[in-house]
């Protein structure tokens, strides 16, 4: 009995222990399953965040200054963004972007052989300052016309401006473009007409805005150069002839004026000399009259001696009668005081002068 009881008790204990053991095993299975679901949820959330971030990054558009962004949907232009800042679009492959450079560029045409209105040839090289304006329609035309390739746009621009140079040059004479006088050159008018011709067409066709056009270089072909040098030589010779004629005319006027002034001066001098001589004669006559009035005999003697001094020189020999005047004074002597009137003189013989 005791053994049976003991055995039963052992069985109960064994059964109880076995049941308790199964209960702990169920708790251990529930813990790992709950942790796996949590880790799965975290991974899913992280994946969704990454996908959302990638979607946002693929949808964000940053527009820089001096740039336009063309948003395309399946390759077709949808809209154009020109304002700097952040914008949004649908992710690829639904929508894509094309950046367009809006900065100012310059292009040179190279030397173009053009003809003027008077049939002469001239080599002209023009430069063009251009850009794509911040306008949606212009940007679309630029992308469509040259596939957003600035080099292709420059090539198209050079050909277009070269053709326009031919048309514009035909409206100007050769001397309007090549001249030694700066005031006779029409280069500003040439540039203005060229700009007016190409700007509207380039904007309408290529979406390019022309900001400035200028003549960078101007040269002459060999035949035109020879003709120009000949024309310039003729012009210089004409100018030289005109200036020579002007100089000769001025010299003739100066000589005529000098001759007239000389004649006037000589006439004035002669008139003054005549006046001085007349005055001196009057003064001499007055002095002679005064001397004669003071002593007529002495006056006559002195005048006779003066006459004798004038006639007789160092090499003169005279054969005269001594009683003839004025030599009679050498014999008769001076008249005595108190004798009135001039001394009586005999008829004088004609003098004979015999130089040694």
Question: What do you see in this structure?
Answer:
- The termini are far apart.
- The protein is 58% helix and 18% strand.
- With 356 residues, it is α+β, with helices and mostly antiparallel strands.
- The model is unreliable at 1-27 and 343-356 (pLDDT under 50).
- 11% of the residues are buried.
- The longest helix has 73 residues, at 222-294.
Descriptive terms for the model:
rod-shaped, disordered N terminus, 356 residues, three-stranded antiparallel β-sheet, 8 helices
Low-confidence stretches: 1-27, 343-356
The overall average pLDDT, rounded, is 79
Distance between the termini: 225 Å
Instruction: Report the C-alpha radius of gyration, rounded.
Output: 66 Å
Structural category? alpha+beta
Number of strands: 11
Largest sheet: 4 strands, antiparallel
Number of helices: 8
- What global shape is seen? rod-shaped
* SSE series: HEEEEEEEEHHHHEHHEHE
- Share in β-strands: 15-25%
Helical content band: 55-70%
List the helices and strands and how they pair.
Blueprint (H helix, E strand, L loop, with lengths): L1 H58 E4 L3 E7 L2 E6 L3 E4 L6 E7 L3 E4 L3 E4 L5 E11 L4 H11 L3 H20 L4 H4 L9 H20 L2 E11 L2 H73 L1 H16 L4 E3 L9 H5 L20 E3 L1
